[in-house]
C-alpha cells in the first residue's frame, strides 16, 4: 500500500494551495483507480499544518450510494458500504453523519448506518448541509432543534461552497464569511447562528475529542507504559550496539563465547535436555552391540579345529594347543573394536548435536551470524580432535586385551576341572576328538565373556574422559588462542551484525523514543 503525504505549513487556506491539494488528490486517486469513477481502500494521507486549524484527524469517506453509475461495477454499492463500515465501526471513531437538508431525513443512509454501528449515539454528530438550497418557505428547524430526529449530540447546520463557487476558486476564508452571514441574516436560523456553521462544528468536535481523550487517558497511559516495557524487553534481547574499538570487540566476543559455553555445559549437566543420550549409549547401545558380536560363529567346532590345526603347523601340540588358544583369543578380541569405535562415534554425534542446539539457544549469538559460524566451526573441529584421541585411547584398551592374556584365568579353569574329577591331561588323549575342540571353544568363550565385561566398563570411562570431559573443559580453547592472534579488523568482521537485526534495533529505539515522548507529553498536561 502506497500512501500520499502533503504538508501545508503556511497560508493553507489560499486558493493556490487549495488548488494544489485538489490536483494532487485527484492525480493520486486516478493513478490508483483510473478515470472510471472507481474507488480504492488505499488511503491518501493529507497533513495540514496551520495556526488557523484545530487538532483533528478527518477521514473523508465516499458517499453511500444505492445505484452504480455508468463505468462502475454493480458491486460498488456494497464495496463502498464495506469500506465505510471498516472505519465507523471502530469504537474511537467520531461519526459525522452528513445529510442534505433538501431531502427526507428518514431516508438518510448516513443516519441509518450510524445508528447500526453506534446505537447509543455517543459517537455520532448529525450535520445538515445545503440549507441555502431548500425551497422557499421551508426550513430545517425541526431537524436542527431535534424535534423530528433527536441525536445524543445537537445537530449542526453548515453552508458549503456551491459548484459554481468551486469553479470560480472562491477560497475558504470567503466561504466561511458567507456562511456566517447566511445564518446571521436568515430569519429562520438567526437565533441558532452561534451554534451553526463549519467553524462551530470544528470547535464542537475538538471539544468533544478533548473530553474523550480525558476520559480515556488513564487507559492510554497504561497502554503506553506497557508498550515501553515490551520494547525495552525486546531491545534487551537484541542487545546493545557494538562498540568500535578492538579491545571492546574482543571483550564482547569472549562474553558471547562464554554464553555459548554455559549453554553447552548446561546440556551436559542435565539442566537442558540432550546429555542423557550419552548415558543411553553406554547403557543400551554398547551392551547390545557386545551381545551381537558373532562369537558363536567364530568359535564354532569347525572354525576352532581349523585355527588349532593351522596354529600347530607341521608339529602337533603335546598337551594344550597354546598357539591355537592365543590365535583364537587375539582374533576374537579384535571383534570388540567395532563396538568401541561405534561408541566413540555415537557420543561424537551427540556432542555435535548439543553444539548445534547450544548455538541455536544462545540468544546473544544470533545477532552475529559470522561469529556464530566461527564458534560452530571451532567447536566442531575441537570435537573432531577429541574423537580421534578417544578412538585411539579406546582401541588401545581393546589392543591391550589381545596383547596380554590373563593366564590365571585358564589356570583357574584347570583347577576347576581337577576339582570336578577331570584329569589335567585328559584333553590330550585324543587331540582331534570333538570333545577336545568343544572344551577349547568353551574355555575361550568364558575368557571372552570376561574381556567383554571388562571393556563394557572401561570403554565408557575412556570415551567420557577423552570426549565429554574435554568438551566441557576446552571446547573453545583453541579458538581463544586464534582470537588472541587476530587483528582489529578481523575481530570487527566477526561482529558483523545481521542487518535485519540492526534495522530492527533501530526501529525499536525510534519506537521507544516516541512512546517515551508520548508518556512525557501526557505527564506534562493537566487532565483535570
TrEMBL record:
Pfam (any one): Dynamin_M
Gene designation per UniProt: LOC111470624
Highest taxon of the lineage: Eukaryota
GO MF assignments: GTP binding; GTPase activity; microtubule binding
Taxonomy of the source species: Eukaryota, Viridiplantae, Streptophyta, Embryophyta, Tracheophyta
Domain called Dynamin-type G: residue spans: 1-218
Protein name, as recorded: Dynamin-related protein 1E-like isoform X2
GO (cellular component) term, any one: cytoplasm
Domain GED per the UniProt entry, residue ranges: 437-528
Alphabetized InterPro entries for the sequence: Dynamin (IPR022812), Dynamin_GTPase (IPR001401), Dynamin_N (IPR045063), Dynamin_stalk (IPR000375), G_DYNAMIN_dom (IPR030381), GED (IPR003130), GED_dom (IPR020850), P-loop_NTPase (IPR027417)
Keyword list, A-Z: GTP-binding, Motor protein, Nucleotide-binding
Gene3D superfamilies (alphabetical): Dynamin, middle domain, P-loop containing nucleotide triphosphate hydrolases
Amino acid at each position: 500500500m502506497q500512501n500520499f503525504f502533503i504538508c501545508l505549513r503556511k497560508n493553507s487556506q489560499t486558493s493556490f494551495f487549495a488548488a494544489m491539494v485538489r490536483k494532487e488528490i485527484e492525480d493520486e486517486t486516478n493513478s490508483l483507480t483510473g478515470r472510471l469513477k472507481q474507488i480504492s481502500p488505499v488511503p491518501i494521507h493529507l497533513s495540514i499544518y496551520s495556526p488557523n486549524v484545530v487538532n483533528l484527524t478527518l477521514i473523508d469517506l465516499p458517499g453511500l450510494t444505492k445505484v452504480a453509475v455508468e463505468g462502475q461495477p454493480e458491486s460498488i454499492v456494497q464495496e463502498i458500504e464495506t469500506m465505510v463500515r471498516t472505519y465507523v465501526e471502530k469504537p474511537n471513531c467520531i461519526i459525522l453523519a452528513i445529510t442534505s437538508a433538501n431531502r427526507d431525513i428518514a431516508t438518510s443512509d448516513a443516519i441509518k448506518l450510524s445508528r447500526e454501528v453506534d446505537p447509543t449515539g455517543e459517537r455520532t454528530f448529525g450535520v445538515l448541509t445545503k440549507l441555502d438550497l431548500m425551497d422557499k418557505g421551508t426550513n430545517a428547524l425541526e431537524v436542527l432543534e431535534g424535534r423530528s430526529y433527536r441525536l445524543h449530540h445537537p445537530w449542526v447546520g453548515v453552508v458549503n461552497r456551491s459548484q459554481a463557487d468551486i469553479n470560480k476558486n472562491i477560497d475558504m476564508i470567503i466561504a466561511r464569511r458567507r456562511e456566517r452571514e447566511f445564518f446571521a441574516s436568515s430569519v429562520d436560523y438567526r437565533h441558532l447562528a452561534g451554534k451553526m456553521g463549519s467553524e462551530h462544528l470544528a470547535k464542537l468536535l475538538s471539544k468533544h475529542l478533548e473530553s474523550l481523550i480525558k476520559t480515556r487517558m488513564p487507559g492510554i497511559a497504561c497502554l503506553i507504559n506497557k508498550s515501553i516495557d515490551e520494547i525495552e524487553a525486546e531491545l534487551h534481547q537484541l542487545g546493545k550496539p557494538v562498540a568500535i574499538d578492538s579491545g571492546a570487540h574482543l571483550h564482547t566476543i569472549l562474553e558471547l563465547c562464554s554464553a555459548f559455553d554455559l549453554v553447552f555445559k548446561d546440556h551436559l549437566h542435565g539442566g537442558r535436555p540432550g546429555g542423557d543420550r550419552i548415558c543411553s549409549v553406554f547403557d543400551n547401545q554398547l551392551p547390545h552391540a557386545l551381545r551381537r558380536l558373532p562369537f558363536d560363529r567364530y568359535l564354532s567346532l569347525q572354525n576352532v579345529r581349523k585355527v588349532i590345526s593351522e596354529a600347530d603347523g607341521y608339529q602337533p601340540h603335546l598337551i594344550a594347543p597354546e598357539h591355537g588358544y592365543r590365535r583364537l583369543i587375539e582374533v576374537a578380541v579384535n571383534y570388540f573394536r567395532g563396538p568401541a569405535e561405534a561408541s566413540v562415534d555415537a557420543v561424537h554425534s551427540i556432542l555435535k548435536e548439543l553444539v548445534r542446539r547450544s548455538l541455536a539457544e544462545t540468544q546473544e549469538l544470533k545477532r552475529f551470524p559470522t561469529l556464530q559460524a566461527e564458534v560452530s566451526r571451532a567447536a566442531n573441529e575441537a570435537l573432531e580432535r577429541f574423537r580421534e584421541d578417544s578412538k585411539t585411547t579406546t582401541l588401545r584398551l581393546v589392543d591391550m586385551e589381545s596383547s596380554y592374556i590373563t593366564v590365571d584365568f585358564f589356570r583357574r579353569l584347570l583347577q576347576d576341572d581337577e576339582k570336578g574329577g577331570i584329569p589335567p591331561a585328559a584333553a590330550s588323549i585324543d587331540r582331534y576328538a570333538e570333545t577336545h575342540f568343544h572344551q577349547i571353544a568353551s574355555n575361550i568363550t568364558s575368557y571372552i565373556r570376561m574381556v567383554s565385561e571388562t571393556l563394557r566398563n572401561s570403554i565408557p570411562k575412556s570415551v567420557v574422559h577423552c570426549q565429554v570431559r574435554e568438551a566441557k573443559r576446552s571446547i573453545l580453547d583453541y579458538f581463544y588462542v586464534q582470537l588472541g592472534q587476530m587483528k582489529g579488523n578481523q575481530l570487527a568482521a566477526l561482529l558483523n551484525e545481521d542487518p535485519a537485526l540492526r534495522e530492527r534495533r533501530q526501529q525499536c529505539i525510534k519506537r521507544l523514543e516516541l512512546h517515551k515522548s508520548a508518556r512525557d507529553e501526557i505527564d506534562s498536561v493537566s487532565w483535570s
